[in-house]
Specification:
Layout: H1 2-12, E1 28-36, E2 55-58, E3 63-67, E4 72-78, E5 84-92, H2 100-115, E6 117-124, E7 127-133, E8 138-143, E9 158-160, E10 167-171, E11 177-183, E12 189-193, E13 199-201, E14 208-216, E15 220-227
Antiparallel strand pairs: 1-2, 1-8, 2-3, 3-4, 4-5, 5-6, 6-7, 7-8, 9-10, 10-13, 11-12, 11-14, 14-15
């Protein structure tokens, strides 16, 4: 697939010189639909159950990160030609999403984000759209404002301080927490809590970045925290 992407890049730039992307690219984009131009069957994100909120953020430092169904991902952007994204150093966490629908979605989404393709921007302000199309005509459609699938916003749940020396606090703003799981960088469960969620001790953890999966009554929230 990378050979196909290289061919597209050569069409746009015979010298294959790195291009500066449209600065509007550098923001957070929320996935709302994906489809193939072969069958034109759309797969709106709102149809996925349990509900998910996949997104990708592109930074002007040419780094990107984001969230799939239950795993986060990151990498570095290459722009070998105008309007082409060629991600490098793609990596993701390795949590088990549980839901077969989530697993299937995430495998396809991460594969797509790993190889990239041509991108197109339209709209303005808070009503912008980003379309990324790969060489085999798979299209992922994003917008820069999040669709509201429920009254819940993941920002209602916070973990702090971050980074932390030995403990952190969880504020769920009156959302009832059923369970919290903490995973290391390779997806291994290092701690599970079924009560006493407000203050969590990390004094016996090694330094590094950990994923925190917070189970609420009818949804899950994934956060990251760094242990110094």
């Amino acid at each position: 697939m990378k050979h196909l992407l290289t061919l597209i890049s050569m069409i746009y730039s015979v010298n294959c010189l790195a291009q500066s992307p449209n600065p509007d690219l550098f923001q957070t984009w929320y996935l709302y639909d994906y489809y193939s131009t072969d069958d034109n069957i759309h797969h709106p994100i709102t149809a996925v159950t349990p509900s998910i909120s996949p997104y990708v953020t592109f930074f002007d430092t040419m780094i990107f990160d984001g969230m799939g169904a239950c795993n986060s991902f990151s990498g570095i952007i290459d722009t070998p030609a105008e309007g082409v994204l060629a991600p490098n150093d793609f990596s993701s966490t390795l949590l088990s999403c549980g839901s077969p629908e989530h697993i299937s979605f995430e495998e396809a989404f991460f594969s797509f984000m790993q190889y990239g393709g041509q991108f197109y921007l339209s709209g303005e302000g808070n009503n912008m759209h980003l379309m990324i199309s790969n060489p085999i005509f798979i299209n992922y459609a994003f917008r820069n404002s999040q669709l509201s699938t429920s009254s819940f916003d993941a920002k209602q749940v916070t973990v702090y301080p971050n980074p932390t020396d030995y403990k952190f606090f969880v504020n769920s703003q009156n959302n009832v927490i059923d369970k919290i799981e903490i995973f290391n960088s390779i997806g291994q469960t290092v701690k599970t809590l079924n009560n006493n969620f407000e203050v969590i001790d990390m004094s016996d953890f090694t330094s590094g970045v950990y994923s925190i999966k917070i189970y609420l009554e009818d949804k899950t929230v994934l956060k990251k925290i760094t242990k110094k």
